[in-house]
Design goal:
single chain; alpha+beta; 4 helices; about 50% helix
Length: about 170
């Protein structure tokens, strides 16, 4: 066996080859792309969740403004105190679109119709109207209306992914 000089061995291709390096690079690239795709999917899921939450809050704000408009339309009912403590929903059959209502009955009808809208638009939606010195408190089962203060509180309650949510606005009609 003859010894071949190192320069001759490299030129003749007797150097040991490295195999599998291209496969490792391809595997690393696939792994990196997979992590990026999963991160993008998680970002999309988070975005969808935030958009859903914003939609419920927007609906609650619009529906609380609807009740405020109903109160402004029934100034006689507000003046007589018919809106001071509307927490239980009572169906009103003796007044409405075809039959004229007394202002106090109109307040009950407004509350009944408004709660039906809340139940249709929000998951577990309900609402109360009352006089309250601290309007940003309470739950759907205990709205915490103290009857003190000069402002009306319009409180909307709903459930969002198992969490009780609340939106309150204060109103001076």
């Amino acid at each position: 066996m003859a010894l071949v000089p190192a320069t001759a061995a490299s030129a003749s291709g007797l150097r040991p080859r490295r195999r599998g390096l291209g496969m490792i690079e391809a595997l690393a690239s696939v792994l990196l792309l997979s992590i990026c795709a999963l991160s993008y999917a998680a970002l999309q899921a988070r975005s969808l969740s935030s958009n859903t939450s914003a939609m419920w809050r927007s609906k609650a704000a619009l529906l609380s403004a609807d009740m405020a408009d109903r109160m402004r339309a029934n100034q006689a009912g507000v003046a007589s105190g018919a809106y001071r403590s509307l927490s239980s929903v009572t169906a009103v059959a003796d007044c409405g679109a075809t039959t004229p209502c007394a202002p106090s009955r109109m307040a009950l009808l407004d509350h009944y119709q408004w709660n039906n809208l809340l139940a249709d638009a929000l998951p577990g939606g309900s609402g109360v109207v009352c006089i309250d010195s601290s309007p940003d408190d309470g739950t759907s089962s205990a709205p915490n209306c103290d009857g003190a203060g000069a402002a009306y509180a319009i409180k909307v309650f709903w459930s969002e992914r198992g969490t009780a949510m609340r939106l309150s606005i204060a109103l001076r009609p």
